[in-house]
Design a protein that fits this description.
heterodimer, A: alpha+beta, five-stranded antiparallel sheet, 43% helix, disordered N terminus, B: alpha+beta, six-stranded antiparallel sheet, two-stranded antiparallel ribbon, 3 helices, globular
Chain lengths: 175, 131
């Protein structure tokens, strides 16, 4: 059994490449969550819960690090990365998404778009769907539950996003 | 000389390439593209079939993007776009007479309705490129 409860970002042998990548791409380690209060609270919470790994938590941690790697790769995109003239992504958008990702309770799938936004998706097996399209100045939210569709805007705020994500998953268990 | 009708008929198919940028708009788990593939500030660039065979269309994309860069090509029926509704505009380019664009409406170039974008992603047909 692996115990990752006491792994800190600076000592981690699991994520050295990500840290190297972050320094190479000028992404602030704090944006990823390393060294942040949240990251340490997160580690403390892990160690206090159990020395064994909660499979859900481990899956989320792995997905979070995959997502961070994806965002670092997206930050390296040049002009015309999609073959249809898409522009590169700004560092401020990347940092903003990294910061949000580091604070989400559930990890999404991440996709770059051709309109300088980054899309976060959650999809259930019954096709219910939640999307956050993150622009520099706003987040557009789209929710599809059964036949109902809803679109609205929020600001860059992980707490609000977490509330929407929890609502989305709770609905699944209620229905 | 090939003459294309400026009106795109509902029977036509509209093709779009998905490149191997890493990451890209491909959802590995679902085996289909995300709606992110159709999010473009200049409208969605596509190629009309122009009565070509699928083989010829795939070849033309391979020539333009190089086979090693192509992850997949997707297509959607023009009739489906009209039903959503979306605006289809024939916009030939000097090096591509089949080029067209999908716009949100007469007034809006960019497709802003996320419901429409998701329907495009869920209903497009995928041609995966053999390596």
């Amino acid at each position: 059994m692996i115990n990752i409860a006491h792994v800190t970002a600076n000592e981690s042998k699991y994520f050295p490449r990500l840290q190297n990548e972050s320094s190479r791409t000028k992404i602030a380690p704090r944006a990823i969550g390393y060294g942040s209060m949240n990251y340490h609270l997160h580690n403390e919470a892990m160690s206090s819960v159990s020395s064994a790994i909660n499979p859900f938590f481990l899956k989320e941690e792995i997905q979070k690090h995959k997502n961070i790697k994806k965002l670092i790769d997206i930050s390296n995109f040049g002009k015309n990365w999609n073959g249809y003239g898409a522009q590169p992504f700004t560092q401020s958008l990347i940092n903003s998404v990294l910061n949000l990702i580091g604070n989400l309770d559930r990890q999404p799938k991440i996709f770059p778009t051709g309109r300088k936004s980054i899309q976060l998706e959650y999809e259930l097996t019954n096709d219910d769907y939640l999307e956050f399209e993150i622009f520099e100045d706003r987040i557009e939210v789209y929710k599809e539950v059964g036949e109902n569709e809803k679109e609205f805007e929020i600001s860059h705020n992980a707490k609000i996003m977490n509330r929407i994500i929890h609502d989305f998953y709770e609905y699944k268990y209620k229905s | 000389m090939i003459f294309m009708n400026t009106n795109i008929s509902p029977e036509e198919k509209l093709y779009r390439a998905l490149l191997f940028s890493n990451p890209n708009a491909w959802d590995d788990e679902k085996g289909r593209p995300s709606s992110a593939l159709f999010k473009d500030s200049k409208g969605v660039s596509v190629d009309r079939d122009g009565k070509r065979s699928e083989y010829d269309i795939v070849n033309s994309f391979s020539e333009r993007f190089s086979p090693k860069n192509l992850k997949a090509i997707v297509f959607i029926g023009a009739d489906f776009c009209y039903e959503l509704p979306l605006k289809l505009i024939y916009r030939p380019e000097p090096n591509n007479i089949y080029h067209a664009e999908i716009h949100d409406s007469d007034e809006k170039v960019q497709i802003t309705s996320k419901g429409k974008l998701r329907k495009l992603a869920k209903n497009c047909v995928v041609i995966e490129i053999d390596k």
